[in-house]
Amino acid sequence: MSSPPTEARIPRGAFLVWGAGLSAYVIAVLQRTSLGVAGISAAERFDASASALATFAVLQLLVYASLQIPVGVALDRFGSKRLIVVGGLVMSLGQALLAVSTTMPGAITARVLVGAGDAMTFVCVLRLVVAWFPARLNPLMTQLTGLTGQLGQILSAIPLVALLHGPGWTPTYLVAAAAGLFVTVLAFVFVRDTPPGHGPLRRSPTMREVGRQLAAAFMHPGTRLGLFTHFTTQFSGTVFALLWGFPFLVSGEGQSPRAASALMTVFVLAAMAAGPIFGRLVARHPLRRSWLVLGIVAVTVLAWTAVLAWPGRAPLWLLLMLVGALAIGGPGSMIGFDFARTFNPRARLGSATGIVNIGGFVASLVTILGVGVVLDAVSDGGGVGRAATYDLDSFKLAWCVQYVIWAIGVTGILVTRRKVRARLARAGVVVPPMREAIARRRGRPRSG
Asked: Which residue ranges does the record assign to the Major facilitator superfamily (MFS) profile domain (predicted)?
């Protein structure tokens, strides 16, 4: 079993390995979000209603979420490189199939393949971070991984949209498939599971050991705190970027496709700006991570409430505020993986990371489906291209589905946080109340 890199030294080649894995994740995000910017075109191509269109994204996320635990177990057993390569090949096959599909069954199969390949990428890159970088840098590198990966969303929001409105559907998704093959080759050539001389992360566990590791990871309240963190912070931005944001901005809020693409780009840039800040905050204040999470959720809820309560179409400045609030949810969800890292030994880190990663995507798929069902229930619709005909009032009612998910998530965070703090107290680590901690930092005497 290898030891992690020393606190003082980053192994030679670490950034090359991380960069190759990161390129695979960037393109995975491109593949994941490529349908969201093509929602209206997909409705026309496949003659799909809102709920039928939501089926694409729901099945993709369902496959992604259901594979997280098997992928985490496989990661502990086989390492990052094999899974990244296999995932890249599967996603490329899915995009190539989508490029030539003209019927719903073919398109659904394609998105299932994309979801399966996508499931193998992110957690594997996080394992590379743990294997190649000192523990003190893990929070920052995790945030950098998440935010840099979102460049894939810029690629889908700008050049992919340009291709879609130029050469058309088939060339667009063939280009996406080719990009996937390219980064898969890079990963095959440059990714190594561990630094030279470190050997494998550990011996391959037996199936009985796998079961014990998985159960132990889930039973630790720190892992479940990470799961509910990911569940609550990530889903709103994912739903917005993956499917319903672009139609909402164009058909509901009356923005042009170019303006909607620009707002999607702002979404990514804001997330990239927030990521390093959150990484530093988490590293400096590890006992206050849950408060940061709750603050992110509060900002997101307030922004959505302002947009949904606004009479008529929201002004551009308010939409920009909404996009900024949604953007911080992505970096916020990375805190969930930091909970998994700090509360689990390395031998079961893949399993714990997979459990955490389920949270946001389960919440996302439920919300995507819920928004689609409400849209169909309250709108008249009408034939080909129905996704473009839903009015603003229909969208506003549909987006209210999110409040149920937030209520579940915040409850989960508060319950599991209490259990984590009780376990820390038994180990001699006391988390002082926020008011007392602030008073200490300001140099005031403790209150009774």
From this structure: 12-424
